[in-house]
Amino acid sequence: MSAKKVAAPWLKQYGKKRKKTLKYPKGSMYDEVLKTAEKYPDAMIYNYFGNKVNYATFMAEVDRAAHGFISLGVKKGDAISICSANIPEAITAIYAINKIGAVANIFHPLSAPNEIKECLNLVGSRILVVIDVAWPNVKPILKDTAVERAIILSPADSLPMLSKMGYRFFNNFFNLKEVQKNLMQILTKEKHTMNWAELLSRGQYVVGSAYEKMTASDVAAIMYSGGTTGKSKGIALSNYAFNATAVQCREAFPEVVRPGYNLLGIMPIFHGFGLGVGIHTIFCGGGGTIMLPKFDAKRFHSILSNTKPNLVVGVPTLFEAMIKDKKIRKLDLSFLKVTISGGDSMAPTLMKEVNNLLAKNGSEAFILQGYGLTECLSVTCVNLAESNRDGSIGLPVPDAFFKIVEPDTYIERKTGEIGEIVISAPSVMKGYVNNEVETNEALQVHPDGRIWLHTGDIGYMDKDGYVFFAQRLKRMIISSGYNIYPNEVEDVIAKVPSVLLSTVVGVDDKYRGQVAKAFVVLKGRTKPSDKIKEEIMEHCRQNLAKYKWPRSIEFRKTLPKTKVGKVAYMELTED
Known about the structure:
The protein is α/β, with parallel strands linked by helices. Among the domains are: 55-214, Rossmann fold; 477-574, GMP Synthetase, Chain A, domain 3 (2-Layer Sandwich), CATH 3.30.300. It is built from 18 helices and 27 strands. Strands 2-1-11-10-12-13-14-15-16 form a nine-stranded mixed beta sheet, sandwiched between helices. Strands 7-6-5-3-4-8-9-19 form an eight-stranded mixed beta sheet, sandwiched between helices. Strands 17, 18, 20, 21 and 22 form a five-stranded antiparallel beta sheet that branches. Strand 25 (499-509) and strand 26 form a beta hairpin. The relative contact order is 0.10.
């Protein structure tokens, strides 16, 4: 099936409105949001626990932050690292960085110290914007990086006054005892650190404009994913990728990506969908984001009833929490117009229950499944209300093209045949940072002259161009929407002195979908014990983000093998 035929269903559906490809902005992320702010200065851009901020106020804050970064010596092309959850200051920092022509290097605030060090050193960041609760993990490794200044944020900075006094809203995001334990350390003035207010204050002494013109092809952000080997890779994403995604999503979902409509921003900003759609697409469309540092199932009812979002996007776990909440079962959900599940496949039984709940409670929405990966920023394939096909991840969004090829080749599979999913789209990455080998493996020029992203995912297409996802080509585990690469965990476990070898597989988990389980073979006559198990876990805690930790460890004398001597992973997953 050719690329043109794959795109045909979209062209047919929108043919009367559009006979040629969409027009994409030639400037930066900041340029596009500024245009929106000039049109809708008084519209709400975000709601953070009742603190509602409009576009004009937000852009003024971005300008102050931009001047603040310049006062620290930041120049066009520099990489400023951001290690934070979804809080207003982090979003403001991203657009301020973009305004001055710098690059936002964004990574998970729950990353282990060694992972943080790798992210900082990959781009040589001199400036780090970090949320307070991640500071204890960050501080010890800064001596091994180029970081000269750390700007420490707090989730309480933008809370309404009464809420700020508490800080109790965030008990479920990080361990409160750990926050209290490190509070004095954070509040005590340390050399080379400052808080957000100090950054803004410094900016007032900078004379002149903070604006640096960027082109569409310039790198706007670096985000992280596993690449083809499983080891975390920095993914360079251009202004064009972000702005194209916003245009494509507005075309696909004009009913909600527009002024006055709100998205519940649960997906994190260090996730392609979280920043690309949950923030940038909504901001470009004149809508508002209901910002949460972390999803809290216990407060889901009050969040929905108080904010009434029109669009909710999340991993299947979010929707599972919805159907389990007795209060939500009694709530009028007519405000929900679109609900999209991504990050992992949703079980048909769960989808049916959620759809029944939505219909019963007055919503016209039903679960739409989509597909995307950080290497192409976000959603590239999605079901629409008008063209939803059961079991499918939908149709390619406008100007995105999908092919199914025989793995490790350019040979296209026939309709209905399984093969590797490859994508050509305006949102595809520029490449992996400082990694030419993996970039060339992922981005390949086919005989048709297009650059195609080889996703490493297996699927097929039907005769109408609908895409169906089958499985990961690699052994990647998806836990609550986060990618876990088994060989990364295995490499960490292998460094424990008593371990001979290990294999990590994904096992089913009622809440997270999947979790990592480690099968470990010990050296010589070493006997399994709780002490060794704890030693392995402690090593994982020191070197891996929490979501990557094995949830269970099983000792084996040997591991099952295939006929060619490889570990039989499937046998372990079936045990």
